[in-house]
Structures are given as C-alpha cells and as structure tokens.
Amino acid sequence: MADYESAGGSLKFKGGGGITKKKKKKTDASKVKAALEAKEATPPPSKPIKVLEKTAAELKFEEVQRKRQEEKVLKSAMKSHKEKVAELNRKLEEMTEHYDIPKVGPG
C-alpha cells in the first residue's frame, strides 16, 4: 500500500515546471551561408559521367509503344460518352458472375 500513497494530488511536470525561453530560429541568410560553406568543404566527385545510349531494339520498342498509345488515344477520343457507357455495360454483361451465390439444395 505504500507504493500507492504518493498517487494523490495534481500531476507534476518534468523540469521544474518553470517558464522556459523559446529558442531563436535561424534566419534564411544563415541557412544559405551554412549550405555554401558545406558545399565548399566537400570535394567534387571524381567519377566521369556515363552517357547511356539506347540500342536499336530499345528505340524500335519505344516507337511502337508510342504509336500504340496514339492509336488508343485517337480511338477513345472518337467515342462519345454514351458509346463508352454502352461498351462498358456490354463487357460487364459478358463477364462471368462468380460472386453470385450458387443455388444448391432442394427448392
């Protein structure tokens, strides 16, 4: 019971509960100055920059993909909203209804 005797009363704050002073924020000028100093202190990278060139197969693949994308955009732009909704409804009707509960048992 001695452990619980000090439980009564109001809560105590850590650190004495006195008034604390707010820390001053660094100004933008000091941040810029610190960044410049850090940039000057680090040595520049000594590795040469590698330029990757695409192969003929990669270029052909990208060209075919671009053409397909353009065809798809033109095809969808030619349809009206009503036609798009009708096409979606047709697709939904053709799908199997595997979420339906099968009828099992008598009746």
UniProtKB/TrEMBL annotation:
The keyword 4Fe-4S does not apply. The keyword Coiled coil applies. InterPro entries: FAM32A (IPR013865). Residues 27-40 have a biased composition (Basic and acidic residues). Keywords: Coiled coil. Residues 52-98 form a coiled coil. It comes from the Eukaryota. Residues 1-48 are annotated as: Disordered. GO terms for cellular component: nucleolus. This is DUF1754-domain-containing protein.
